[in-house]
Amino acid sequence: MKITIMTLFKETMDPMLEYSIVGRAKKNNYIDIEAVDIRPFANNKHLQVDDYPYGGGAGMLMMPDPIYSCYQAIKKQSQAKTRRVIYMTPQGNVWNQQMAEEFSKEEELIILCGHYEGVDQRVIDEIVTDEVSIGDYVLTGGELAALVVADSIVRLIPGVLGKSESFEKESFSEGLLEYPQYTRPAVFLDRKVPDVLLSGNHKKIEDYRRWEAIRNTFHKRPDLLKDVQLTKEEQQLLTEYAKKHCKVKEGML
Hints:
two-stranded antiparallel ribbon; alpha/beta
């Protein structure tokens, strides 16, 4: 897969693409990822990329010409038959794990980072296929959001994390939050690792972790449970647990 991030601040993006999982995936050729500076594609001697919005209003707006020229240059160098162009915007669909899984199967992605008061609508209409938000709040620019999206995609590409189990049991992979995890020492500040995890009984460990994931989700994100397929036994256990430990509004489960 190839991911290109269109930005006005390439110098802030480059270091982040060289570290941790993304950096290793790039080094090992699982992913071709880079940031491309929009500013050199401005068609004026001062490399101006923003201007006042027609009709008045506060702030400046990114001009369409530099963005479109940058996009065309990226497209010209690509061998991909298909590509999706993501525009990071508070108005977009809120990013989630299912979207990350969907986009990880694409041949090429281009991520456009807005700045100032946003981007001229005409270039959005011309090149953007998906508008994406990472939450209901406003950032100064789209760079941080683009890194979040790219990171969540890259780690799902086969081979990047090694064994697929590394992400298959993570939070949201089954609609549930992840179960609590423990490592050495077996006792820390008088708190012991649950005995079942030391038992060596893989079936009991699997059952324990499944229940802990359900319980964890119930306490922290009960809204997620409506979309989780629980067995009759799990549903009964959860109902009894809720009655015993929590004051639950009728109909939550």
